[in-house]
Design goal:
Layout: E1 4-8, H1 13-30, H2 46-60, H3 65-72, H4 76-84, H5 91-100, H6 105-110, H7 114-118, E2 120-126, E3 138-139, E4 142-143, H8 144-154, E5 159-164, H9 170-175, E6 184-188, H10 190-193, E7 208-212, E8 216-220, H11 223-232, E9 237-246, H12 259-263, H13 265-274, E10 275-279, E11 282-286, H14 287-294, H15 300-311, E12 317-320, E13 325-329, H16 333-350, H17 357-363, H18 369-380, H19 385-393
Helix pairs in contact: 2-4, 3-4, 17-18, 18-19
Length: 400
């Protein structure tokens, strides 16, 4: 079991207070030292990047600048300055703005540092399993590959490499080079893996890799925030663990602690006593670690095992999810049925599509309205047409 616990995410009031104090300093740093000509000249300061995120989120929820101003209690000129990158929201406005725009405060502030996102790439390893689960296996109404790609899209990652354990061209026929979703997609088949090992992360700008190495359904109300936070707090090697049934005590050993951890120590201690935690087939790590793992491996199955062994490392940082998450590692037909039942129930009761890659890409700004329609036709066919029309013609529901 992983031995170093770094962060535990809770909904407790004391954490919210701690976060607010943290953002006081962060927003002070983001105050722009710029002029109005920087955006037009291609210079993107943190304030401009935050303003762009505010503008996109405002349009996504169908609000005008005057609507935002009236709801928060400021002038529309102030909102205009935010969106043009001439100023940033005051700390006192952040919470209201995040609720109004359906954004997390941390993600709003993180939008001011897009260069961090550019340092990441996605890596999906799909070994050939004896259980018969394949990229095209349906989990209720969508192929498994859509669920797996959705985690990268939710995290804002646009450069993704897929290593598959067979030579099927199904993924390529469905997504091509990824441009249909506004992403860069590279697919390496089993027969080509030995000759393309360095292509897993060959871009000089890439410093960190978000890897998934098995078929997985993972869901929770704050999933996007959890993934973003795991990326933000990944120094070298990290994974995610989530609570299961009541267990005992001390199921994960404590390691180094930050100031925030000390502030939440009593809550975490209680959680540790009540729940057992299990890790997911997900790794956040530096590029060097991936290159080292793949250097002497010739197939996807061995690569998957190498990544799994990293989770058992004593040097890994463990990001703890709070209660309210569900995970199904799809290793047999029963697991597949359970995952399908969950998706069907969720979609039937909420009226929203779970892990719809077309919608996520659209909400992330990777594709526009026309791109959403085109992606829906190619990936999901006529089954999604009514849902997409509702997205474009009515107020937009939230995708988690």
């Amino acid at each position: 079991m992983p031995s170093r616990l770094i962060y535990s995410f809770t909904q407790e009031f004391d954490e919210i207070v701690a976060i607010d104090h943290q953002f006081v300093n962060e927003v002070d740093v983001l105050q722009p030292k710029t002029d109005s000509n920087q955006q037009s000249s291609g210079i993107y300061t943190p304030a401009i990047c935050m303003g762009d995120a505010i503008r996109k989120a405002r349009r996504n929820v169908g609000l005008t600048q005057k609507d935002v101003a009236a709801s928060i209690g400021i002038t529309d000129k102030a909102v205009s300055k935010w969106e043009r990158g001439l100023s940033v929201p005051d700390v006192s406005c952040l919470s209201k703005l995040a609720v109004l725009l359906d954004m997390d405060i941390e993600l709003l502030v993180a939008s001011a540092a897009p260069e961090e996102r550019a340092q990441w790439c996605g890596l999906l390893v799909l070994p050939l399993r004896e259980n018969g689960i394949r990229p095209w296996t349906l989990i209720h109404d969508k192929p498994a590959i859509c669920y797996l790609l959705s985690y990268f899209l939710l995290s804002g990652i646009r450069d993704i490499t897929i290593i598959q354990g067979d030579n099927s061209d199904y993924i390529y026929k469905l997504f091509g080079d990824g441009s249909i979703l506004g992403i860069n997609l590279k697919i390496i088949s089993e027969s080509d893996f030995r000759f393309n090992r360095k292509s897993v992360s060959n871009r000089s700008s890439v410093k960190k890799v978000f890897s998934i190495f098995d078929y997985l359904l993972f869901d929770g109300v704050d999933l996007t925030r959890l993934l973003e936070r795991a990326m933000a707090h990944c120094s070298n090697l990290a994974s995610i663990a989530y609570p299961l049934l009541p267990y005992g005590q001390n199921c994960i050993a404590h390691g180094r602690q930050t100031d925030q951890e000390v502030a939440r120590k009593s809550h975490r201690a209680l959680m540790m006593e009540r729940y057992a935690y299990t890790s997911l087939p997900i790794i956040f790590c530096s590029r060097d670690i991936v290159e080292s793992a793949v250097s002497e491996i010739d197939d996807a199955a061995s690569f998957s095992k190498a990544l799994l062994s990293l989770i058992e490392s004593k040097d890994i940082d463990v990001v703890l999810a709070d209660r309210g998450y569900l995970s199904v590692l799809i290793t047999n037909k029963n697991h597949l049925a359970s995952a399908s039942e969950y998706v069907e129930l969720h979609q039937r009761l909420s009226g929203m599509k779970l892990r719809c890659v077309e919608e996520i890409a659209w909400r992330r700004g990777f594709i526009d309205d026309k791109g959403l329609v085109a992606a829906g036709r190619k990936i999901s066919g006529h089954e999604l047409s009514d849902y997409i029309e509702a997205l474009l013609g009515k107020s937009k529901p939230t995708v988690g």
